[in-house]
Structures are given as structure tokens and as C-alpha cells.
Amino acid sequence: MKRLFSSKLWIAFVILAIFISGQLLGAFAIKHYFIESKIEELQPPLTLIGEEVAKGDKISRTDDFLVKAFDVHGKEMDVYTDDGVPSSDNAKVNKKLASYLPKIISGKMAVEIHEVPGYSKRAIIIGQPIVHNGKVTGGIFLLKEARAYQAALDGFYLVFFVTLAIGTIIILAFLTVFIREKNELDQMRKDYVANISHELKTPLSSIKALTETLADHVVTDPEKIDQYYSIILRESARLEKLIADLLELSRLQHKKVAFDKSVVDTKEVIEEAAEPFAILADELDLQLQITERAKNLPETYSNKDRIIQVLTILLDNAFKFAPEQGRVVIDAKTTGKKAEIRVSDNGPGISKEILPHIFGRFTKEDLSHTSTGSGLGLSIAHEIMEQLGEKIRVESKGDSGTTFIITLRRA
């Protein structure tokens, strides 16, 4: 039972119960109002006939309905004129109607759709007292075949139960997706806490261990001491970068900052973003290429600083995964009202398992978190592009390298 409620399946049962109850109540309500409409239709002629019978008058037989009357002792009264033809199954009909007589004599009305042997499989039965000089002298009944009425009522039931079945399937499908997504979100939150704990713990552990070593004067070699200080400085910078990225991502996701847009010289943006990486490429023995198409992109309408930030993230990512003597290419493409900037590397590519989650927090191709960086860059890039009203996507096939594409609206 605990597992049932912890899995949130009780939500499904509550919603289904409400839906089914509503459908059944609707069906019963339709039946009730249907019978009420028949009463309003048939009671007036029955009342008139009852008044005539009470005075001793008789009526002519009709094909629309059958009238039967009984005195208080259950003896049938003749209500039709001499030319009336008695029912061939008169005894069976009388037996059925006699069962309602005590209720009628007590002054109540009988209304029902029921099978009447000898008359019809389903008939509308309306009965009421015969009153003469303020005294109940018997009961009178009107019977009308209910084939057409029953068919209409069955049609209502069919519609309701079909709606019930389809609605139940849709609700179950929706709840299944909802519960699955909720469980995935819960798991993502747990993974996020675990990942952020790991990312914070690693530099802090290094800083703590090195600081304790220096404080205890275990290391006396000046070169070794300088090396330890360099590591502490590097780990501190890494920790600072991680915290800054966390704050940036949180601000982007929760505050939904509105970025100012203007006409942007796209070529200038690409060159400005690529400039520091051109220097880094020489140091790392990598080739950074900006194609002619990228150099000749038309002006776009966006936020210059944020596009530079996104391109910096994508170039940084490409440089991390490009192999030694590898190549990073900035290419471009124009399609209709959009311009695309494409950042590619010839690294190992992204596995198909990771690809759908590449823009998630702390998503790294090496799940052991051994690569440098906070693991938040692509999440930040994704949030920026979303808030700019643009798209970012990735293309990668196993070991054939990776290409990140961002779209910009042409000015």
C-alpha cells in the first residue's frame, strides 16, 4: 500500500473514479429526465381518461396505447366502448398491472419502463388512482410500447459507455506519461544533487589536502611548495567557475531575463568569439578554421554579448574534445529568414545514449567527470538560445566528430 501511494498511482485512481462517477451519474440523470418527459407527455391524456371512467363513461380503443382500469378489489373495469376488441393476452397484462394496484389505491402514481407479458417486451407504464367524489374507487393504467423510447435510451447508454471507455484510456495514457515524467524529474533532481556534490567536493578536497600539507610543514622544498600553491590556485579557480556557472544557470532558468536585441554584425561576433581560441589553438597544436561562408554571413537580429557567450561555450567544448593536431571549424549557412552558425570538431563524437541529454545539467560524455569544466556550459547555452527565441541543436555520429548549430534571425 505504501508503494502504491509513493508511486502517485492514487492520483490515477482518484481521477478515474471521478470521471467514471460523472459518466454514470450523467447516464442516470438522462434516464431520469427521459422518464420525466414521458410522464409530462402521457399523464394529461391518462388524467382525462381517468375522469371519464370515474363518471362511468367509456373510450374508444386506439393503436397508440392501451388503457386498463381496476376497482379497489382488483376486478377489471370495462373502459372501452362495445366495438373495442379485448387483448388476446388480457390475463397476463392484468396480472402484471395488478401488482401495482396497492400502490395506486394508496394515492400514489406508478411510472416505469418494464416488460409487460402479453403486451410488449418493454412498455411505459403510468398508473394513477381513479377518484370519484373525493374517494379512490380504483386505479387506471396507460401502457405504451417503449421500443422507440428504449432504443433512444440505449443509444444514450452506448454513447456514455463508449465515452467512458475512450476517456478512461486517454486519462490512463496521460497519467502514465505524467507519472513517468515525474519519476524522471525526481531522478534528475537526485542526480543533480549527487553531481553538484561531486563537482564541489573534488576541488575542495584537493584544496583541503594541499593546505593541510603546507600548514603541517611536511613539504619544505620551495619548488614543491610553489607547485602546491599553483594547484590550490587552479582548484580555487575551478571552484569559482563552477559556482559562477551554477548561479548563471539558475538565474537564466528562474528569472527568465529578457535580453535586449539589436542588429548584429554576425562576422564581427564570430571573429570576436574566436580570437582567444586562435591563440589557444597554436598552443594546443590545433587548427581553428573560419570558413568563407561564416565570414560572409548577413547581419542578424539578436543580442551580441549573449551570442558571443554561446559561441565561447561551443568553441571551448570543441577544443576540449578535439584530438591532438585536430581541427575545429566555424561554418555557416543561411536558410530563408534564418542564419545558422555551426561549430564542429573532429573529436570522438557523442554516443547515442548521451546525445538526447547533452543539454542537461552536468552532462559530460565521460560520465566519470574526469574532463575539465563544470559540465554546465551547454545547459547555459541552451537556456540563452531559448530566451533569445532561437534554437540550438547538435549533430554527432559516433566517432565522426560533433557539430553544434545555433540559429539567428536575419536582420
Task: Explain how this protein is built.
It catalyses: ATP + protein L-histidine = ADP + protein N-phospho-L-histidine. InterPro entries: HATPase_C_sf, HATPase_dom, His_kinase_dom, HisK_dim/P_dom, HisK_dim/P_sf, Sensor_HK_Regulatory, Sig_transdc_His_kin-like_C. Its main location: membrane. The chain crosses the membrane at residues 156-179. It is an enzyme of class 2 (transferase). This protein has 411 residues and is an alpha+beta fold. Among the domains are: 2-79 and 90-145, PAS domain (Beta-Lactamase, 2-Layer Sandwich), CATH 3.30.450.20; 258-410, 2-Layer Sandwich (Heat Shock Protein 90), CATH 3.30.565. 54% of the residues lie in helices and 19% in strands. The protein has 10 helices and 12 strands. The chain has helices spanning 2-6, 9-54, 90-98, 101-105, 147-215, 222-255, 266-284, 292-295, 304-321, 377-387; strands at 66-71, 76-77, 110-116, 120-132, 135-145, 262-264, 287-290, 300-302, 327-335, 338-345, 392-396, 402-410. The strands form 2 sheets. Strands 6, 7, 8, 9, 10, 11 and 12 form a 7-stranded mixed β-sheet that branches. A 5-stranded antiparallel β-sheet has the order 2-1-5-4-3. Helix 2 (9-54) packs antiparallel against helix 5 and helix 7 runs parallel beside helix 9. The protein is elongated, with a radius of gyration of 43 Å. The model is unreliable at 1-6, 84-88 and 364-373 (pLDDT under 50).
